Protein 1
Amino acid sequence: MNSKALYRDFPILDRKIHGKKLIYLDNAATTLKPKVVVESLKDLYYFHYSNVHRGIHTLASEATNLLEDTRRKIANFLNASPEEIIFTSGSTLSLNTIAHSLVKSGILREDSKVLVTTVEHHANFVPWQRLSKIYNYKLLYARPTGRMGTILIEDFEKFIKEEPDVVAVTGASNVTGQRLLIKRIREMFEKSILVVDGAQLVPHTKVNVKELDLDFLVFSGHKMLGPTGIGILYGKKELLEKMEPFLYGGEMIDKVTLEDTTFNILPYKFEAGTPNLAGAVGLAKAIEYLENIGMNELENHIKELTDYAINELMNLDFVELYGPLDETQYGIISFNLDGVHPHDVAHFLDESFGIAIRTGHHCAQPLMLELSSKSRLDFPNATCRASFYVYNTKEDVDALVEGLKNVKRWLG
Amino acid sequence: MMDLYSEIIVDYAKLKKYKKRMDDADTVREGVNLSCGDEIKLYVKVRDGKMESLSFEGKGCIVSQASTNLMIERVLGEPLENIHEILENVKRMVKGEEYDKNLLKNVSIMENIRSYPNRVKCFMLAWRTLEDALKELDRG
């Protein structure tokens, strides 16, 4: 894949940071936006904008068609049907919707069991934990016993006999980049409702919800070249039909009387309020852009970069690497420098080399605890994280490695 | 090179002098920077209205470690009312407002923290913890 040829599609890559060319390695937090996505928003607001579903006039029907075209496009992308695609603001709202709706519908109740892992992003951890306190279901934790935060199939196997009602797992860790074997997890927990947090998975690979037999899949648009504020909740039709909506309001109703309210059909039952039309249109454009590149091409490119970076970083004796470091690690590398705090690493890389990486606990404090117990360093409860996307190159990795050598020389 | 990582600031960050437990402290106050996980434990001993001893344990970035050592160096031996005055001036300094450089002495070598809003929390961790400790002592 020729990543350099894509540069002209991303105007922000022309920016200078402290006089240096920007090297953007914070893609797991959010990706940059290509011109076609930004222009699709402009085109919508300039020429086709109106509220959806309500009006009779021309603009209202254009806007409605745009939203429903987008829904079909995303349904095709996931091999789902359009009524199973719900627009949300992002993975966080999608996961909250699932968890809250399951308890409100009584599908999760006092004697139920929910299995999560301790490598989850807080968005797929805190909702299940907090609701377990209120609704008294049992929360089970699968902990990573593999290399530095790597979760193994055995770590799940021990919970098969528990027969959890819900299994909520990440498709790929936002800290270690480990892709979980969702197919195996599905086979192990045949009868459980399987919720997959795809925030770090869907941007990197084609996910077929029917083939994997997922009950729920969530992801965010902004991590795959789309705008912020748009996300997707895929849910199996027969489950969504049984579920009470999480949010109430306009559009999601059928008939409202003083006594009670009946609900709209799927997917509108779960879309209370005016949807983020521009976000949806931008996300559809982003998916189109990614499909033009080819999801397989993209996946191979990112894997190649990841392996290259792991090898280069392994040569630095002052770097401690987290995660599996094997064929299951995609797009994300977490590490620490011996004797230098991650904040100082990130600050130095930015100011001296124009390199953007992420540092902190990455919204995964339980995983930081796991790493802390395995680290040979004085673990700072945080890591440095470099993450790649379509426009990154081996030169970016080389710049990172050179930058880290300088950080160590200056601050270590 | 970079304002925040000048040799003198890095040296302050690595200073060991004040990094120790104190068994006879009047109060021990913990502070946490939630955005990065930095933690500090501040041991405070006041005698006759003056800061007699001050030390800390904890880990963190260069900004937070240097700031802690500069703070301890500056406030040791000072009457509490002066420390409150110093604290107010430190807050003004990080906000980019006018402040009394002579009063802050060496602390002002980190004046440029004002240009890095993302790092102000790191810088302020020790100062906020000290402020909390003094309030606690004040309440008795």
Protein 2
Amino acid sequence: MIIQPAMHIEESPTGSLAVRQLSVYYGDKKALGPVTMTIPGKQVTALIGPSGCGKSTFLRSLNRMNEMIPDCRVEGVVKLDDEPIYGAGVDAVAVRRRIGMVFQKSNPFPKSIYDNVAYGLRLVGMDDRSELGGRVERALKHAALWEEVKDRLNESALGLSGGQQQRLCIARALAVEPDVLLMDEPASALDPIATAHIEELIHELASDYTVVIVTHNMQQAARVSDNTAFFYMGDLVEFDTTQIIFTKPTQSRTEDYITGRFG
Amino acid sequence: MKGSSLRPSRLPHAGDIVLWLATGLATLLVLVILLVILIDVVKNGAPRLTLGFLTKAPSDGMTAGGIFPAIFGTVALVILMTIAALPAGVATAIYLHEYASPTAWGTRIVRIAVNNLAGVPSIVFGLFGLGFFVQFVGGGMDKIFYGGDKVFGQPALIWAALTMAILTLPVVIVATEEALSNVSPDVRLASAALGATKFQTVSRVVLPQAVPGILTGAILAISRGAGEVAPILFTGAAYFLPTLPHTVHDQFMQLGYHVYVLATQSPDVDATRPILYATVLVLLVLTFALNASAILVRSRMRRHLSRAHG
């Protein structure tokens, strides 16, 4: 496997993820890698590829969520701004506080809207009411949900629509002010209007956060991302700016996938 | 089949009729048995069931008076039992479900032990309680703290409650585990992804959602404990006591055991019979009420969850 150097991607100062020779195994079976790439900070990077290509596995290995899966093993190095997240003595809990995640299926807690957003802050012991309130409001505004819920913060989050629930999950992840936001097909269960909302939001988030998004939808990748990585059969095939990937990819497999010849 | 008749048929299929009859009759049989028992007990017991019966002690060789000491003893027993069984059972279930590796041999052994504990005949628990709690633990405490005087080394409320707690432990563990596994894995992932430690996820997200299920288990355990007699035969229940238990190392009267005593040990069977029926009625009402409240809690939880997902 030739690793294509990402020639056109601009490096940016903070929130970048340097992945070096990363492999993931489930039991004895290798699911991914070795992958080497540098995800630039404060840009949107899309991970595309057919089902089972390892893109979700790769995403989960970026904030050590794969450790929730029994028998999952990771080799290689991932660094967040020169800090190795798999380093000896590095706590997965600390990693996840800096690298947040939004899931395919919206998963609000059966608590109030306010308590959902405040959850991560309370975990680290924040209990000052005015400070909490300010952070909750800021996160909800950032996730473009504030106007819709500001009058019913104490109502159950489960009463929100699917699209609102997903934006609540984004707000919840943003409230702890992470460096990176990982998104695993965040709009795949939503209708087109809610999807458009989320896509618009992803675009705006990139001014403050590094966003890595897994998507099945190629148009979505083209619309929201600055860079695109194409995975196939557990390998990174090509990684470059989205414009290059979608107009003149160097690998024929990338072109085949993008033009719909397989997958 | 292509071209087969779609004409409405008047007669149902023969197999359906047979099955309908067989299952219907079986259901009817169960209902009739339950009804016969209930009618018999209510008819013979209700007239004797007065306020005085519930608040007075037995008198005249149990041919008169009430059953208050037995009610008091039953309530004291289940309260102490719950205090002992609930925390231990819930903690065991949390460990098994949230922390222990499901494939580790230690976990498997604990699981097998819990399942076997549920299948042990209750009289065996009674004998175990006598040997372990009364003689070993109680006798040991007497030797160490009371210079050999019999204080704890005899059948007592506390030993009966602990024996009953062991009996009901599997009920609490199984119900709690079920409640924990009903908590969606999605919210566990969400919590972990926000930087929650395992303990924070369990205590802030998982347990609050599991509380109704745990309560159901606790009520079922209490209902079982209120009705069992065998475990307390040798560990603390008394035939007749002139006073209520003052301390946990006193003996006590209990409804189920009182029924047994009334039915087999009375000097005047005819005089005792109405009292016996009324006592059975109280015991039935008590356990039915506990089971009904467990069902109520569970259905409320279901409704709550379906609203949550709807």
